[in-house]
Specification:
- The chain is an alpha/beta fold.
- The protein has two domains: 103 residues, ATPase, nucleotide binding domain (Nucleotidyltransferase, domain 5, 2-Layer Sandwich); 54 residues, no CATH class.
- Helix content is 44%, strand content 25%.
- The protein has a five-stranded mixed sheet with strand order 3-2-1-4-5.
- α2 packs across α3 and α5 packs across α6.
- The chain is elongated.
- The two termini are 40 Å apart.
- The model has no long low-confidence stretch (mean pLDDT 92).
- This is Zinc finger BED domain-containing protein.
- Keywords: Metal-binding, Nucleus, Zinc, Zinc-finger.
- One of its GO terms (cellular component) is nucleus.
- It is found in: Nucleus.
Length: 174
């Protein structure tokens, strides 16, 4: 906290996600600043979100987190996040439009996803792959056959791979 308090300016990043096993939501917050011309980065923590992800609630949680670490919003020169509409509303209200830097990886993913959506060939292939994955996941016999083929090709029991179904809102999933 001492180093953060002494910094002249900060850049913050944060992301919200849902852990699917227990179906809980979290926000992770990081901070970046210069100390004697050396870049310092750190995690302010991962915090559970207990309510619906409205802009008002996310802004309150983020404000509480920054205050807990003595991060002055006036000293934040940039905020890097994904392009989620709720997150962008929070960013505009807390930091102002000029300080928002959209996450490059998220932006590239949106470009790729939009391009795939416009390609009839790509959407047809992706749709067929999804149906195959769903079939294998529903069928014990098909799952057994997939494991058998992997073992025949040199994979040891316990190291065989399972098929996963992509999730459109999770980048790098498709």
């Amino acid at each position: 906290k001492k180093y953060i308090k002494e910094a002249e300016h900060y850049c913050n990043t944060y992301d919200i996600w849902t852990e699917t096993v227990q179906n809980k939501s979290f926000v992770g917050v990081t901070i970046h600043f210069l100390e004697n011309s050396k870049l310092r980065s750190g995690s302010l923590g991962v915090f559970e979100l207990f309510e619906k992800h409205t802009a008002e609630y996310v802004q309150k949680r983020l404000t509480d987190i920054l205050q807990e670490w003595n991060v002055s919003i006036d000293k934040v020169t940039a905020i890097v996040t994904d392009n989620d509409s709720t997150v962008m509303k929070v960013n505009r209200e807390m930091f102002g439009e000029k300080k928002i830097i959209p996450c490059f990886a998220h932006t590239v993913n949106l470009v790729v996803t939009n391009s795939l959506d416009k390609s009839k060939v790509a959407t047809t292939i992706i749709s067929k792959v999804r149906e195959i994955v769903k079939f294998i996941k529903r069928s014990v016999n098909a799952s057994d056959e997939l494991r058998k083929k992997q073992r025949e090709n040199g994979m040891k029991e316990g190291q065989t791979k399972k098929l996963i179904l992509d999730v459109r809102t999770r980048w790098n999933s498709t």
